[in-house]
Amino acid sequence: MKSYSDLKEDLEQRRREMQSKQKKQIEDRKKKAVSYREIVTSNMEKERKKVQKQREKEAEQKQAIRAREAMKQELKREIESEKT
């Protein structure tokens, strides 16, 4: 049979182990939370860049269409001026 001091020591050892385990679990949860936030932030940033690229592409296409229309108008004016 174990003595009182041995039992008390065992209890203290178990308590320390439990505290250590709990601290580790808390740290792991914090890391997962930070990791999740980083993933979400990264995904949002990627989406923002994708949308920005798409807007720039659309703006370039609109500008190209306007430039083509302007060239057509210029050609029409040149043809009209050559006719007269």
Walk me through the structure:
- By secondary structure, this protein is mainly alpha-helical.
- The chain is built from 1 helix and no strands.
- The chain has one helix at residues 4-83.
- It starts with a helix and ends with a helix.
Concise summary:
The protein has one helix at 4-83. By secondary structure, it is mostly helical.
Q: Which parts are unreliable, with pLDDT below 50 for 5 consecutive residues or more?
A: none
What oligomeric state is this?
Answer: single chain
Residues in helix, %:
over 70%
Using DSSP, what is the number of strands? 0
Can you tell me the overall shape? rod-shaped
Q: Find the structural class using helix and strand composition.
A: mainly alpha
**H/E element order:** H
Taking all Cα atoms into account, the compactness measure Rg is: 36 Å
- Report the span from N to C terminus: 122 Å
* Residue fraction in strands: under 5%
Main beta-sheet annotation:
none
What is the average of the pLDDT values?
93
Q: What count of helical segments does DSSP give?
A: 1
